[in-house]
Amino acid sequence: MSSIEQLWTNYQLPIRDALHFSSGESFEIEISPADSAGYKILEEFDLASELSRNPDWVSDVDGLHSVVLDGGDLLWAGAGSYGSEGFVARLNREKSLIWTVFLEESNPFQEIHLQGKIACFVSTSGIKLRVNIDDPLLGALRGNPN
C-alpha cells in the first residue's frame, strides 16, 4: 500500500500543493488561473520520504460535494482541516483513492461540473481546476519550480 493510500484510509492528505496517485506517484503543483487546466505540474517528489521527515504534516479532509461516474467511481471535493485548504479526488466504488489534488490556499471545493472526461472543480474562493478525470497530468502545463 502506498503512503498516500495509507493516509487516505484515515481521510488525511499531506499539507502540500500536490497531485497524488494511488500508485505512489506525487507531483508538486501550483495554481495557475491563466492556464486551461488552472494548475501547473512542477516536479515529482517522494511522498514517503517527506512523510518520514514530517509525519504529522497532514490534514483531515471532508467531502462537501460528489458526483457519481458511470461505472460507480466517484468524484469528491471538499475541505481540509484549516479553512484555507481544499481538495478534489477520484475514488473507486469502494471509496479507495485513485488520485487526489490538495491545495493549501484554495479554500474548500464545493462544486463539480462534469463535461465528458473533464471535471471542473470550483472552490469557495473561485479557484477553478479543470481536470481530466482519467489522467490529471493530461492538459496541465509542465512548469519549473521557482
Question: How is this fold's topology laid out?
Answer:
Blueprint: H1 3-8, E1 12-14, E2 18-21, E3 26-31, E4 39-45, H2 47-53, E5 58-60, E6 62-68, E7 74-79, E8 86-91, E9 97-103, E10 109-115, E11 118-123, E12 128-132, E13 141-142
Parallel strand pairs: 4-13
Antiparallel strand pairs: 1-5, 2-3, 2-9, 3-4, 6-7, 7-8, 8-9, 10-11, 11-12
Could you describe the 3D structure shown?
The chain is mainly β and 146 residues long. The protein has one domain (3-139). It is 9% helix and 47% strand. It has helices at residues 3-8, 47-53; strands at residues 12-14, 18-21, 26-31, 39-45, 58-60, 62-68, 74-79, 86-91, 97-103, 109-115, 118-123, 128-132, 141-142. Strands 6-7-8-9-2-3-4-13 form an eight-stranded mixed sheet. It is globular, with a radius of gyration of 14 Å. The N and C termini lie far apart (32 Å). 32% of the residues are buried. The mean pLDDT is 95.
Distance between the termini: 32 Å
Helix share, percent:
under 10%
Based on Cα principal axes, name the global outline. globular
Determine the strand fraction and express it as a percent band.
Answer: over 45%
* Structural classification: mainly beta
Low-confidence stretches: none
Q: Output the helix-strand order.
A: HEEEEHEEEEEEEEE
| Strands, count | 13
Please tally the helical runs, counting DSSP H or I stretches of 4 or more residues.
2
* Spatial strand order of the main sheet: 6-7-8-9-2-3-4-13
Largest sheet: 8 strands, mixed
Mean pLDDT across all residues, rounded? Answer: 95
Radius of gyration: 14 Å
List the domain count as a whole number.
1
